[in-house]
Amino acid sequence: MSTRTQGAHHAEKVDAASVGKVALDPEVVEAAIQRIGRELFEHISRAPASPLTRQWWDDHLVEWTTSDPAVKNQLFRFIDVLPMLADDRAVLAHLHEYLDPVAQQMPTAMRMAISVARPGSLTGRALAIAARRNVLAYAHRFIAGTSAAEVLETAAAERRMGRAFTLDRLGEAVTSDVEADAYLASYLELIEAVAPRVNAWPEQPRLDRDSRGPMPRMNVSVKLSALDAHFNPTDAAGTARRVKARLRELLRCAARHRAHVHVDMESYSTKDLTLAIFRDILLEAEFRDTPHVGIVLQCYLKDAERDIAELVDWARHRGTPIWVRLVKGAYWDYEMAHARAVGWPVPVFQQKWQSDATFESQCRTVMANAEFLRPAIASHNVRSLAHALAVAEQLGLPHDDFEIQMLYGMGDAEKQAIIDRGHRLRIYMPFGELIPGMAYLVRRLLENTSNDSFLKAGFHDNAPVDKLLARPLAPPALVESALPETARGFINAVRDNGSFRVAAAEQTLSPNPETAMSPQSFTNEPPTDFAVTDHRSAMSAALWRTVEQFGRHAPLVIAGRDVDTAARIESLNPSHHRQVVGTSSVADVAHVDEAVVAARRALPGWARLDVGRRGQYLWAAAERMRTRRFELAAWIVHESGKGWIEADADVAEAIDFCEYYARQAVELLAPRRVAVPGETNQLTRDPRGVAAVIAPWNFPLAILTGMTVGALVAGNPVIMKPAEQTPLVAAELMQIFRDVDLPAGVVQYLPGVGETTGAALAAHEGVDVIAFTGSRQVGMSLYRQGAEQSGTLRPSIKHVVAEMGGKNAIIVDADADLDEAVLGVMHSAFGFQGQKCSACSRAIVLAHVYDRFLERLVEATRSITVAPAEDPVPCLVR
Fold this sequence. Notes:
A hairpin with a 2-residue loop joins strand 2 and strand 3. It contains 31 helices and 30 strands. The protein is an alpha/beta fold. The chain is elongated, with a radius of gyration of 32 Å. The strands form 9 sheets. The protein has an 8-stranded parallel barrel with strand order 4-7-8-9-10-11-12-13, surrounded by 7 helices. The chain has a 5-stranded parallel sheet with strand order 25-24-23-26-27, sandwiched between helices. The two termini are 46 Å apart.
């Protein structure tokens, strides 16, 4: 499977190759960086924060309380949940819950205040009030206002200090079409209310003009994911259609009021689709000549070089320039955690110097192409700023043809230093309700207190200027020493005109035979990332290839032979009820007898086979599933009505079952010495006999595979009876077992009706084990039957393993993040139409948030397009 571009790009110094029309001398540029950087630091040092200011106390309070990582983590958890807390008692309870475990690491005064504050006491109430007041006051430092009037006042104050602005509305997480419309409406209202006022302000040429003429004073930043309730790269075409409809309205409003619209960038999963929508809409005739638009590019991404190169080519083709805001990125923690959780390549650089180096490299690219990409350099890092100013100086780029951007509420001394050098400075000003703004606030706090934070290093830790202005280089020998020995042979290190690049060949190494089957080396099969264009294309192609095979017929398989029957199961697409996916034969009681005989005949040889060899068959089956992954997922889409993500996960889980059971069996089934004084004993485990696997339709590959290979690896031949709704997916599994040369008779494929084929298997005296997934009613009847049956072939009690349906609840607490709670319940209840064992059938919601939760869940549900497949009905409990 193809993956996103993951090449690492590390710049040691300015490329000496031609950049635009000007060749930059690396050493001249570096000398300019050092000169400009020292001038900036000298200017900053003349304006130290005073202990008489609120900002000084805010900064130091955060520094004192977050110097310990454990304290920082717990404090930020409290800040994040604070807006949801109903009263002082709840605030105090959460203070104790989060901070008591780290009390010994907190400053003495803070520890003593919390220790004496108890519910119902005056000190408890006072502490709760103080906590809420101080956190909200601190939030106001980073959030420019909650209304258009407050935003206008803040923007005017910034302008009086010689600063332009861009406005970003907080609370961009939308769960319904109503909320997406409200997000758009808030921007339309903001532009209509604020733009006429700011357009009437007296002109400040540095802020309001560049070499091409007047610039919009009204500037807004928007997130495209907030323009759609279901912004999903898997449905790229549908998402783009819905987002463009709302974005066109915004662009038209901006044009009427002479406003600039800048598209923000979010998580990596939305990046490619965001870029595609942005490029597409700005090539439409109505917007092709619009110059007052821009987009953000994140330089902590390994894709940054490719994305900017493609944007240069696109802008050249468009003919009208756009603005590009270069940032390093604000989602590093999330991207790292998410990629590791799902097993995908980490999309961000893992060392700060790499992001810094890429930022400088791409800053040069954008500035050298300023005719097409108007540079907006967004950073508080003095080295990065000095680099941008030095490159502009060397390229002869006028001051008014690029701008510096910084965050509201941070680095005022830096801002003044930039302004005093004659550069245009634009302030990124978030606005909106404080409750949704808390996530933004916590992110700003994390940035300010990160060990890698430039602000922390420069202004709190007082790092030496030489260190702060040092080139972003890899520590000596870091690149190779950080890689495993087996990968070092793939390193291709090239030093070309001062640019250092590492290319590690992407290839799968054969597993070490000694550790391949170890349980400890198991990792889950990563899901397919459908944000990748190649993956979507592959899935689409597989869907069409399988459609061309509709009408195929699957015979029974007994003792390795195809056995056809006159009776047929007609498999229908549950999303298109008249569409016949294919047919299968139908096993009757005689076929069940024949299959049991074949399985019992294969039992001795399969049971004698070494468990490691049996595991290798499973290993081979897993590998075969990987090579046919999209095709298998396509059959699941057609035959069970799953969406792409669910169908792909079904295949991934089947792969996991094969590999996990193969690894576990080697350890679990190995003979063991049993220590009894005076005796020599050995414990061995033998197969039970023939296993009948009766599988459900809602996980047509994963559950059938799991129950089958679990029995196989333990030495039991299997008779597979798939659900009558999904016999063709099961036929694909049977074909995989044939492809890996599983001995004839070890697995039989017996599609049929549950009441006849399933019942005959359950009652057959030659079946030793029944593995069943389905309803509680059927499962309990199987347990009763198994306990009562015995016979000449199997004198022991029949063993039954049953996974039966139930009712699953999600509890939404009073301090829950309702954005996440609504999305979680909606995904669990309605993902794959709720047709899976783990679907949310009821949500138990605390009274304090019940009404808000219900309103948002109802609207979110209204935004779902339901196909003809099954409709789930979740229940809400107050």
